[in-house]
Amino acid sequence: MVMCLRLPSLTSSLFSPATTNSLRLSPAFLRRWRGRYHLQPPSPLLASASFSSQRTTATETSNEDRADGNSKSRLNNNSDRVITPLSQDFNAWYLDVIANAELADYGPVRGTMVIRPYGYAIWEAIQEYLNVKFKETGHSNMYFPQFIPYSFIEKEASHVEGFTPELAIVTIGGGKELEEKLVVRPTSETIVNHMFTQWIHSYRDLPLMVNQWANVTRWEMRTKPFVRTLEFLWQEGHTAHATPEEAENEAIQMINLYTKFAYEQAAIPVIAGRKSRVETFAGASKTYTIEAMMGDRKALQAGTSHNLGQNFSRAFGTQFTDENGQRQLVWQTSWAISTRFIGGIIMTHGDDAGLMLPPRVAPIQVVIIPIWKKDEDKPGVLNAASSVKEVLQTAGVKVKLDDSDQRTPGWKFNFWEMKGVPLRIEIGPRDVASNSVVISRRDVPGKQGKVFGISMEPPILEPYVKDKLDEIQSSLLRRATSFRDSNIVDVSSYDELKIAISKGKWARGPWSASDEDELKVKEETGATIRCFPFEQPQGIKVCLMTGNPAEEVAIFAKSY
Amino acid sequence: MVMCLRLPSLTSSLFSPATTNSLRLSPAFLRRWRGRYHLQPPSPLLASASFSSQRTTATETSNEDRADGNSKSRLNNNSDRVITPLSQDFNAWYLDVIANAELADYGPVRGTMVIRPYGYAIWEAIQEYLNVKFKETGHSNMYFPQFIPYSFIEKEASHVEGFTPELAIVTIGGGKELEEKLVVRPTSETIVNHMFTQWIHSYRDLPLMVNQWANVTRWEMRTKPFVRTLEFLWQEGHTAHATPEEAENEAIQMINLYTKFAYEQAAIPVIAGRKSRVETFAGASKTYTIEAMMGDRKALQAGTSHNLGQNFSRAFGTQFTDENGQRQLVWQTSWAISTRFIGGIIMTHGDDAGLMLPPRVAPIQVVIIPIWKKDEDKPGVLNAASSVKEVLQTAGVKVKLDDSDQRTPGWKFNFWEMKGVPLRIEIGPRDVASNSVVISRRDVPGKQGKVFGISMEPPILEPYVKDKLDEIQSSLLRRATSFRDSNIVDVSSYDELKIAISKGKWARGPWSASDEDELKVKEETGATIRCFPFEQPQGIKVCLMTGNPAEEVAIFAKSY
C-alpha cells in the first residue's frame, strides 16, 4: 500500500505504521493492520446516534422550556444536567459539549458533520490567523479541483487495493457510467504534481509555494466529530523547491508556524518534533508534527509538515532546468491543519461546565448579562449594557449582549459558561447606580473569578477587559502546560514505559531501537512514538529498550 | 423534472425554461429541452484542448524566452502576439486572456478548472467584500456536508431522471458499493432543509440566516473556464423566516447587495430585476437576478436571489410553532454568487491587450517598473522604486515592484498591461534625479494615459495614486455603462425585437404576453427574457407581442 495520498493526514495513528520511508508497505502488513482496524468496537455508531437524535440538545432543551413557559433552566439544575461530567466519561462529555454548545451536528450521511455557526466561527479564527501568516511567508492561495482521475492514484500506488477502503469514488457523472472513475480528493499531492509539471520549467519558476483551503474526503470507519469525519475542512500547503535544503527549511518553517499558532492563539502547548521512521508518512523523507495532550491525556496529532523529498516529483516527473541547463527533479513539501484542530481546542480546555475557549479563538470574547427584577429598572440596565457593548465593540472586542427576556440571569450565566465565553459582564441596577460592572472569568469558577465595581468609564473598562482577556489567554496556556508536564513521565526502561502508559500518561525516554521494537511497543501497550521532540534534554542517553547509546528521547503515548 | 436543486444556479439560460413555477415540468418538455441541449456542437472540447495544451501560455513563452536568453518579449512583437484580438474571436480572446494572465488552467478531469493564484486573488477580493456584508446583514457562516443522500433528491423530484444528467454520484465508499448512492452537492437546499427541521422549533428560532462558502458540482456538458465548470466555488445563503414578507425582504436585500457589489467593486453595471415565470427557478416563488452585458454583448446571469416561499419547507416539513402555538411552515430564501463572476469581470472590462481589472478587485493595483540602462544607474533607481513601493504599501495600496533583471521594461509594460494592473509607475534615472515618477493608466492607452513628473514625496504621491485608482474605478464603470446603454434597444414590436437581437443587441420592451410567446421568442431568436428590471420607465405600456396593456418592460438577450 502506498501511503503517499495521506501525506498531510492528521489521522496518523490509525494509518501511519510504515516499515520504511519508501513508497511501499507489504500487503501482509496491511492486511494485519486493516484487520485490527476493523476489529474496533462499533461504539462510534452508538455515539453518533445518541449525538444526533437521542441526546437532548441545548436547542431542544430551550424549546421545551419555552413551550413549557418554564424559564428556570434545566442547566441550573444539576440533576437535570445534560453534559456528562468530563471525569465520568470523556467521550460522552465531548459529544455533549459539541451538541450543547451548538458547535456541530451530524449530517445525514454516516460520519459526516455539519459545522454550525458557533463551531465555524472558531474555524474562521483559525483561518484568519493562518491565512495571514501563509501570505507573509510567501504562499499564494489557489484552488485545485477535487475530482482526481483514479489513474493518478494508481500512478502513486501499486498497492492501490490497500487504499481503496479510504476513498469515495464517483462512478456516475452526467447520468452515465464514467469511463474513468474519479476519486474525491483525500489530499491533493497527485493533482498538484500533475499541474506543477505544467507550470514549472526553469529554476526561475521556483520556489512555487501555494496553499488551498478546501474540503477533503476520507472514508473513515470510526468517526468522531471534528477529530475524524468522512469529510473535513483543511488547508493544504504545497511547495516545490530547487534544493533539498530549501524544502527542509520550508517544512521546518511551517511546523514552527503551526507551533506558534497552537501556543499563542489556541493556548495549546503542543510538542513539536519529528516522527519516527515507522510513523513518517510514506512518501515523505521526514514528517514533522505537533502533538497535543487532550483532557483524557490521549495525544492528538494537530498538524503536520512533510519534507517530501523527490518522491512525488519522481512519480510525476516534476522537473526544472537548473542554472546549468540540467533537468532536475524538484524538492517538495506539504503541510496541513484541519477542522480537527477545533476538537483539540475543545478537549484541551473544556471542563465539567462545558467549553472553555481561549480568547484569541473565541467567537464571543465577552458576554454582557443585564440583570433586573423590577420593570422600572429595565431601561436603565439595558441602556448601560448597550453602552458597554458599544465601547467594547469599538475597541475591537468580540462582544455579545444577551438581553433576551426569555431566560433568567442564572440560566444565561450557565449557558454562556457552557459555550466557553472567556469573560462575563453583569450589570444590575446597583451597578448602574454606581456606574460600575461585575466581571467574571470563565476559567476561574465561582466568587474567586468575580470582580465587583469595575468602572464603566471607557478609559478604565476597555483596558481592564483587554488585560483580563490576555490574562485568561495566558492562564489557559499555563494550565494546559502544567497539565501536560505533570502527565509526561521520564522513563529509562521498557517496564517504566509500560507503567506510565498503563496509567494513561505519556512516556518520554531515550530511543534508538528498531522499527520492530517500536511496533512491539504499540502492540503491547497501545502507545506509539508521537515524536522525537525538537527540544531534547542534555546529557548522555541510553536507549530504554536496548541499552544502546541513543541520540534522542522519544515521546510515547496513546493517541486519537 | 423538478428544478429546485438548481435554485441558486448561475447557469439559468440552459436550464431554466419552466412552464410554471410549480415543482413539476412535463417529461415531454424535458426531453425536448435535453435533446436540444445535447445538439450543441462539442466546441468546448476543442477549446479545452487548445487552452490547456495546444496554446502557448505566458509561462511557456517566458520560459522559452528565458532558455533562449532572449530578453526581447514576444509580447512586444505584434506578429507573435499570443492573445487573439477581442474583435476577431471573443471566445478565443477570453481563453487566451485566462491562459496568459495565469488566471486558471484546465484540471485533468474534463470540465474542471484549476484556479491559479492570480485568478484566486480576484475571488478573495470578492469574498472579502461579500463576507463582511453578509455578516453585517445578520448572516452566520457555517458548513454543510457535500454528500447528499440520493433519496433527498428524490424527495424533491418525482422526475428525478430529468436531473440525473447533472449529477456526480458517489457509488463506492470505503471500498464497498454503497447501499444508498450519494450525490455530490449541486446546491444545498435539500440538506439545508433536512438540518433546519432539527434546529427550528419555535418562532424564537427565526429568522435563521446562514451562508456557506463551498465547492459545488454540476455535470455540465459545455464548459468554459469560470463561466461554467464541472466544479465551481460559490457562496450559498439560506434563510428561514416566520412570514412571507420577511422572506421577500431578505430576497430583495440580497439582490440589492449583489447589485451594489457589482457596481461599486466590480464596476459592472448589472441590470437587476425579476425573472419571468418561465425563467424563475422552479421551487422559487420569485427569482431576482443581476444581468451583466459582456464584451460580446451576450448577457451573463451574475448572481441570483430566490424567494423560495414554502416550497422546500413543504417538501421537508420545516415547521415552527408560532406565537399562538400553531405549527407553521417556514418561508425561505436562497442566494448565490460564484466564481462565474470572475468570468464576468474579464468579459466586461478586457480589451485586445488583455485583462483590465477594476482597482477594487485587482490583486495588484499598482506595478512599479524600474528602468535603467547603465549599471551605475541601477542602485539609485531600485532604491527609489523600493521606497515608492514602501510608501504605497503602507498606505494600503496593493503594489508590486517588478525589479527582475530578466525582462526589458517594454516587456514588463506589456506583461502587466495584459495582467490588467490598473496603474503603472515607471522610475528611471532622470525621474530619480528630479525626485518624480511617471504614471500610466491601464484604461487609457498610450501617451494619453501617461503623466510625467509626479513627485515621489509621500504626501503628494500617495493621494495622487489613490485618486487615480478611484478615477479608474469610476471610469471603468462609466465605460461599461455607456457600452451597455448603447447596446440596449427600446422595441415596441416583435419585429423590432428580432432586428435588435439579430444585431447582437439587448431588446427592451413592454411585455405581458404568455409563457408560450416567451418560449417562441427564444425558439425564433435565441433570446430569453433576462429580467423585468426593477427600474421601469414611466408611462403607458403596450405589449410588444400582443398589443395588450403591459405593466412592465422586459429585457431580452442572448446569454451565456
UniProtKB/TrEMBL annotation, chains A, B:
Of the GO CC terms on this record, one is:
aminoacyl-tRNA synthetase multienzyme complex
Question: Where is composition skewed (Low complexity) in this entry?
Answer: 45-54
The catalytic activity, as recorded, is: tRNA(Pro) + L-proline + ATP = L-prolyl-tRNA(Pro) + AMP + diphosphate
Q: Where is this region: Disordered?
A: 45-79
Q: Which Gene3D superfamilies match?
A: Anticodon-binding domain, Bira Bifunctional Protein, Domain 2, C-terminal domain of ProRS
User: Which keywords does this chain's UniProt record carry?
Assistant: Aminoacyl-tRNA synthetase, ATP-binding, Ligase, Nucleotide-binding
Give GO terms: molecular function aspect only: ATP binding; proline-tRNA ligase activity
**What residues does the Aminoacyl-transfer RNA synthetases class-II family profile domain cover?**
110-358
Please identify the protein, giving its name as recorded: proline--tRNA ligase
Which lineage do the record's taxonomy fields give for this organism?
Eukaryota, Viridiplantae, Streptophyta, Embryophyta, Tracheophyta
